[in-house]
Amino acid sequence: MEAWRGAQRTRLGVIPKDPNPPVENNYIGKSSWLRVVRQEPWPEPLLTNAPHTSTSSAVSRLEKLLREGLFVVTSECAPPDSADPDAVLNHVQYYEGCIDALNVTDAPGAHCHMSSMGVSLLLEKAGWEPVMQMTCRDRNRIAIQGDLLSASALGIRNLLCLTGDGIENGDDPGAKPVFDLDAVSLLDTARRMRDDGVYRSGRELATPPKIFLGAVDNPFVPPFDLRPMRLAKKIEAGAQFVQTQYCYDIEVLKRYMECIREEGLHNRCFILVGVGPLVSPRTARWMRANVPGVYIPDEIIARLEKAQDSKKEGIKICIETIQEIHEIEGISGIHLMAPKREHLIQEIVHASGVLTGRPSTLVSTGEFTCPSQG
Question: What CATH number is attached to the domain comprising 225?
Fold first, then answer.
């Protein structure tokens, strides 16, 4: 039944009543966008939690850097279609010396790859700082909670919580979607396990997981006035940091951050803004038309079209965007995404100057030892 509900949810259809709906779905287990589609009223968040102002010690290198007030750089890698660990370790050379943490995607686009946990463990053992992504599409709450404990036991300390892409986006449409939880209820589950030492069922944990919790947000698509409220909902559920969708419109970002500062949300959650290079006007138009949640202004596309070398111009635009983001109050870093263009990351980061003045040890790998699981 839950798998069927998930399938309906991904198609944006009306969710019919099922015989035994989970009670908590009425409170926190409902996708944020679903409320908008149904035009339901939006409750004011309680915001009793201020996760990143906790007095407890940082559990990860990423959390430590953010708490120290440094402007961080994260990026992401896609797991390979391979069982060879070298396929992972040879690829990450592009990120050496220019990032603070590396997201590991979880079957993005509903395509099967090496698991996020497996790649995260390989990276952690090699001295990198992984951010393990976890989606709700392929696991029920029992499997999710088991994976949370396993990740922490293996030394993986950063977790990015997502609802997940719909099955219809992938190459195996016969797969059954789960969606027992969504991003908000996943955050709430992980926070309760960590802070209260209990499963969702209420059963006690012998040793709670040590995790730094993250979420995603998209300030660049409507309804713009609800974006801060949606972020507040995730913060209330447990998000300590957030990574946004690609930013190609600085003015929209500035207006979003004004609202965030008015509500004080930047003091409750570290905000990392997504950026990425556009290598051609054709790529820009394709992304605008086909990548959900990505908005690229006509001015950016026109600038790429007029350039003699659109690739160089795209890199220049990305660098300029990072520099402007760096000057906006309340932003704690960037999340640089360059799928199949990872070789550009070092050039972009260093040319942007956002790491200028940082000790080299802070952007190399493996120098931060996580606390033991005691």
Answer: 3.20.20.220
Mean pLDDT, range 333-358, rounded to an integer? 95
User: Where in the sequence is the domain holding 133, given as residue range(s)?
Assistant: 2-12+60-350
The amino acid that residue 318 corresponds to is: C
Helices (H), the chain: 2-10, 32-38, 61-67, 86-89, 116-125, 141-153, 183-191, 227-237, 250-263, 281-290, 298-306, 310-326, 345-352
Most distant pair of Cα atoms in the chain: their distance = 63
**Six-digit token pair at 89?**
């370790």
> What percent of the chain clears pLDDT 70, i.e. is strictly above it?
81
Q: Is 273 helix (H, G, I), strand (E, B) or coil?
A: strand
Q: Is residue 37 part of a domain?
A: no
Cα separation, 110 vs 118, whole angstroms: 17
- The pLDDT confidence band at residue 327, using thresholds 50, 70 and 90, is very high
Which letter does DSSP use for residue 207 in this model?
Answer: S
DSSP H helical segments within 19-168, as ranges? 32-38, 61-67, 86-89, 116-125, 141-153
Is the pLDDT confidence value at 33 over 90? no
C-alpha torsion sign, points 351, 355, 358, 360: negative
In a domain, 363, yes or no: no
Judge whether 326 lies within some domain: yes
- Return the number of other C-beta atoms located less than 10 Å from residue 139's C-beta: 20
Which among 195, 245, 242 has a CA at the least distance from the CA of 48?
195
Does residue 287 belong to any structural domain of this protein?
Answer: yes
Q: How many domains does the chain contain in total?
A: 1
